[in-house]
Automatic annotation (TrEMBL):
GO molecular function: monooxygenase activity
Signal sequence range: none
Designated name of the protein: Flavin-containing monooxygenase
Gene3D superfamilies, per the entry: FAD/NAD(P)-binding domain
EC number: 1.14.13.-
Length: 459
C-alpha cells in the first residue's frame, strides 16, 4: 500500500503525525510520500514576502502577512497530543503571532522525525485514477530541476488548503482607480498605509483583520464595505462600515447608501475559491466556503471515490485539532481499523450531516456543529479526547471579547482545555506591539513593553 499526501501544511503534517503515531505504537503503516511545493512545511503559516508567482513561477500559496497574529485563541486549536506547555515549556499568551504558531506546529513533526517523508519544492501537477487497477497515478514536478515523475499510489490525501486562490469581484469603473487595488491574498503589510485612506471590501475575517492592521499601522481612515451584513464591532475613530460599493470614479467609491468617499488603496477581502488544478473534475471538490462541503463522507472521504480523501476542506472554526481528528480518522480507514461503509450508507451519513448543516441559524450553532463533527471523528480513533463543551465555551467567550473590544481582544487570556494552564498575559498590548518576532515574543518583559494591564480572569 502506498499513500500520497498532497501538501505539508497543518493538514498534511497532521496526517504524517497520525501515521507516525501508529507506527510508534507498533502498527504496520503504509509507505507514504508527502508532496510539498514550497521549500518548507507549514502551509499558510510558512510566510513569504513574495506575491503573485514564486521563484519557480508557481502561484504563491500563502495569504498570510508579516504582522499576522492568531485571530482565535490558541486554546481552541491546541493539539491534544502535543500541548503548548510541552513545546514552550511555560505558559504563553492566548493569541500568538504567526512565527510562534509556526514554531509550535513544526515542533511536533520535527519531534516525530517525519521530515524524511516530504518531497519539498515538488508540486503535484496531475492525479489520475485507473478504475481497473484501483490506483492513482500522481505526476509531480521537482521545481528546481524541472524533472517530472509519475508514480502510482493506492490512496491519495489532498491537504492543499482552500485559502490561496482569490475570489476577485469586478466593480464598475474600478479600472479608473489610480491607487493600489489588490486581493487580501497579496497583502503583506500595512506600513505603507500610514496616513492614507483604505477601503476594504468584505465583512469577514480578512476585512476585519486587514482593516485593524491598517488602523494599527496609522492609516488615516479605514472603511469596510459589506455586501450582506456589517461586522458590527465598535470600531475606533477613523474606522467605519458602509454598504457595498456600487461603482468607482477615479479614486472615489460610491456606496449603496448614496454616500461616496475618496480612497488611496483598495483591498478585496472577498474570500477564496476551492480550486484543485491537479485534479480532474470527477475528483475535485467544488464548494462554497462552508462547514460541510457536499460530497465528503465524514467531511473527509470523497464519496465518488473513497480512495481519495480531503483534509481541512471545511471553513474553519477549529483548525489544528480538527485536522488531527480528520487525519487520525483517515489513517484508520486506510489501515482498515475503521470499516469503509458502502456508498449508500456513506450517503445516508452525509445526508444526516447536511440536514444538520442546513438547520444552522446562528454563529453558536455553527461552532457547535463543527466541534461535534470533530468529536465524532475523535471518538472513532485513539486521538486523545478533550472537553468539547469547554472548547465551545471558549469560542463564545472569544466572540464576546471581540464585541467588547475589537482592538483589544488579543490581550485576553483563556485556560487550556488540554492542560488547565492559564495563558500568560503578553508583555505588550497587541495594538502597541510592532515587532512580531518569536524572539521578542518570548523575551522577558522588554524595557519598552507597553503593559497589557492587569491579567484578566481566564474564561
Ligand atoms: C490569511 C489567513 C490567516 C489565517 N489565520 C489563522 C489563524 O489565526 N488561526 C487559525 O487557526 N487558522 C488560520 N487560518 C486558517 C488556515 O487555513 C489553517 O490554519 C491552516 O493553515 C490550514 O492548513 P492546511 O494544511 O489545510 O492548508 P494550508 O495551510 O493552505 O497548506 C496547504 C499546503 O499545500 C501545499 N500545496 C498546495 N498545492 C500543492 C500542489 N499542487 N502540490 C504540492 N503541494 C501543494 C501548499 O504549498 C501548502 O504548504 C488562516 C488562513 C488565512 C488564509
Ligand atoms: N489570523 C487572522 O487574523 C486572519 C486574518 C485573515 C483571514 N483569516 C482566515 O482566513 C480565512 C478566510 O477568510 P476571508 O475573510 O478571507 O474569507 P471568507 O471568510 O470566506 O469571507 C469572504 C467575504 O467576502 C465577501 N464577499 C465575497 N464576494 C463578494 C463580493 N462580490 N462583493 C462583496 N463582498 C464579497 C463575503 O461577503 P458575504 O457575507 O456577503 O458573502 C465575506 O464577507 C478564514 O479562515 C479566516 O479565519 C485569519
Amino acid at each position: 500500500m502506498r499513500v500520497a499526501i498532497i501538501g505539508a501544511g497543518p493538514s498534511g503534517m497532521a496526517q504524517m503525525r497520525a501515521f507516525e503515531a501508529a507506527s510508534r505504537a507498533g502498527e504496520e503503516i503504509p509507505e507514504f510520500v508527502c508532496f510539498e511545493k514550497q521549500s518548507d512545511w507549514g502551509g499558510q503559516w510558512n510566510y513569504t514576502w513574495r506575491t503573485g508567482l514564486d521563484e519557480h513561477g508557481e502561484p504563491v500559496h500563502s495569504s498570510m502577512y508579516r504582522n499576522l497574529w492568531s485571530n482565535g485563541p490558541k486554546e481552541v486549536l491546541e493539539f491534544a497530543d502535543y500541548t503548548f506547555d510541552e513545546h514552550f515549556g511555560r505558559p504563553i499568551s492566548s493569541y500568538p503571532p504567526r512565527p510562534v504558531l509556526w514554531d509550535y506546529i513544526s515542533g511536533r513533526v520535527e519531534k516525530s522525525g517525519v521530515r524524511q517523508h516530504v518531497r519539498f519544492s515538488t508540486v503535484v501537477r496531475w492525479v489520475d485514477y485507473d478504475d481497473a487497477a484501483e490506483q492513482f497515478t500522481v505526476t509531480s514536478e521537482d521545481l528546481p530541476s524541472g524533472t517530472t515523475t509519475s508514480e502510482t499510489f493506492d490512496r491519495v490525501i489532498v491537504g492543499v488548503g482552500h485559502f490561496s486562490f482569490p475570489r476577485m469581484p469586478d466593480f464598475d469603473g474600478i479600472e479608473t482607480f489610480p491607487g493600489r487595488v489588490m486581493h487580501a491574498h497579496d497583502f503583506r503589510g500595512a506600513e505603507d498605509l500610514a496616513g492614507r485612506d483604505l477601503l476594504v471590501i468584505g465583512s469577514s475575517y480578512s476585512a476585519e483583520d486587514i482593516g485593524s492592521q491598517a488602523h494599527k499601522m496609522g492609516a488615516r481612515s479605514v472603511t469596510a464595505s459589506y455586501r450582506t451584513a456589517p461586522m458590527g464591532y465598535e470600531w475606533p475613530d477613523g474606522f467605519e462600515e458602509k454598504p457595498l460599493v456600487l461603482r468607482f470614479e477615479g479614486s472615489t467609491a460610491h456606496f449603496a447608501d448614496g454616500t461616496s468617499r475618496e480612497f488611496d488603496a483598495v483591498v478585496m477581502c472577498t474570500g477564496y475559491l476551492h480550486k484543485y488544478p491537479f485534479l480532474p473534475d470527477d475528483l475535485a471538490l467544488d464548494s462554497p466556503n462552508n462547514v460541510y462541503p457536499a460530497g465528503l463522507y465524514k467531511g473527509v472521504v470523497w464519496q465518488r471515490n473513497p480512495h481519495l480523501f480531503y483534509l481541512g476542506a471545511q471553513d474553519q472554526w477549529l483548525t489544528f485539532n480538527m485536522f488531527d481528528a480528520q487525519a487520525w480518522f483517515v489513517r484508520d480507514l486506510i489501515l482498515g481499523k475503521i470499516e469503509m461503509p458502502p456508498a449508500e450508507e456513506r450517503q445516508a451519513d452525509i445526508d444526516t450531516w447536511l440536514a444538520r448543516f442546513e438547520a444552522i441559524e446562528t454563529v453558536a450553532d455553527e461552532v457547535r456543529f463543527q466541534v461535534e463533527y470533530t468529536g465524532e471523528l475523535i471518538e472513532a480513533t485513539d486521538y486523545p479526547m478533550f472537553d468539547l463543551e469547554e472548547v465551545i465555551e471558549i469560542f463564545l467567550a472569544w466572540k464576546r471579547d471581540k464585541k467588547d473590544d475589537i482592538m483589544g481582544y488579543r490581550d485576553r487570556t483563556y485556560r487550556s482545555v488540554m492542560t488547565g494552564t492559564i495563558a500568560a498575559t503578553h508583555h505588550t498590548r497587541w495594538v502597541d506591539e510592532l515587532d512580531d518576532s518569536i524572539a521578542r515574543y518570548l523575551a522577558p518583559v522588554p524595557t519598552d513593553a507597553v503593559g497589557a494591564g492587569a491579567p484578566r480572569a481566564p474564561r
